[in-house]
Amino acid sequence: MDEKDLELNTLHLSLSIASDGTLGVWAGQNVDPNTLDPGTGQYFIDVLNGLRCQIDTNLDHLAHIGAMMRFVQEKVEEERFEEEEEEFVFEPDPELLKKIEEAKVKEANGKVVKLHKKLH
User: Fold this and answer.
1) H or E element, residue 105
2) Whole domain around residue 23: which residue ranges?
3) Dihedral over Cα of 49, 52, 57, 60: its sign
4) What are the residues facing 11 on neighbouring strands?
5) Element (H, E) at 36
6) DSSP per-residue string spanning 65-87
7) For the chain, how many structural domains are there in total?
8) Could you tell me the sign of the dihedral formed by the alpha carbons of 59, 65, 68, 73, in that order?
9) DSSP secondary structure code for residue 20 in this structure
10) Among candidate residues 102, 98, 103, the one with its CA nearest the CA of residue 113
11) What does each of the 120 residues of the chain score in pLDDT, given as a tens digit?
């Protein structure tokens, strides 16, 4: 692919796996610094070059991070599935029910002071 074929202000990173298992990496860009805020175009070109360097020199590390992300995603999905299957039923403690009844009796006897809601 020719960089001039890319849309304006586009970064392109292409990875291809060869039959021998090696990874081919192509990075290209068509960034016009005059159409962006000062420094923005160069910043993203630097990001693209950094990604290319990381892929070229730390592929095993990137694979390890990807495996950890996959593991976390699987655990999140498992947890979500388990939560959908479980039904939680709230059963109040008998002591709580007793206190609620006592509070109702006190209120009925006028021993509870009711405060007016804030008007503003």
Assistant:
1) helix 94-108
2) 3-85
3) positive
4) 29
5) none
6) HHHHHHHHHHHHHHHHHHHHH--
7) 1
8) negative
9) T
10) 103
11) 788 889 999 999 999 999 999 999 999 999 998 999 999 999 999 999 999 999 999 999 999 999 999 999 999 988 877 766 666 677 888 998 888 888 876 666 665 556 666 665
CA–CA gap between residue 10 and residue 7 (Å, rounded): 6
Tell me, yes or no, whether 53 lies in a domain.
Answer: yes
Amino acid at 32: D
Q: How far apart are CA 51 and CA 15, in angstroms?
A: 12
Helix H or strand E segment including 17: strand 10-17
Q: How far apart are CA 68 and CA 60, in angstroms?
A: 12
Q: Give the integer Cα–Cα distance in Å for 46 and 74.
A: 33
Among candidate residues 6, 2, 1, 50, the one with its CA nearest the CA of residue 32 = 6
Q: How many residues does the chain have?
A: 120
Q: Does any domain span residue 107? A: no
Q: Is residue 100 part of a domain?
A: no
Does the pTM of the predicted model rise above 0.70? no
Indicate whether 13 belongs to any domain: yes
